[in-house]
Amino acid sequence: MRTRKLGTQGLEAAAIGYGAMGITTAYGAADEAGGIAAIRRAHELGVTMFDTAELYGHGTGSNETIVGRAVAPFRDEITLATKFGWVLPLNPEKLYDSRPEHIREVADASLRYLGVDRLDLFYQHRVDPDVPIEDVAGTVGELVEEGKVQYFGLSEAGPDTIRRAHAVHPVSALQSEFSIFERATAEEVLPTVRELGIGFVAYSPLGRGFLTGDVKPAGDYAEDDMRRNDARWQPGNYEKNLAAIGQLRELAAGKGSTVTQLALAWLLAQGEDIVPIPGTRSVARVEENAAAADVELTADDLARIDEIVPHGAFGARYPEIMMPRG
Ligand SMILES: NC(=O)c1ccc[n+]([C@@H]2O[C@H](COP(=O)([O-])OP(=O)(O)OC[C@H]3O[C@@H](n4cnc5c(N)ncnc54)[C@H](OP(=O)(O)O)[C@@H]3O)[C@@H](O)[C@H]2O)c1
Question: Where's the NADP-dependent oxidoreductase domain (predicted)?
Answer without folding.
Answer: 15-309
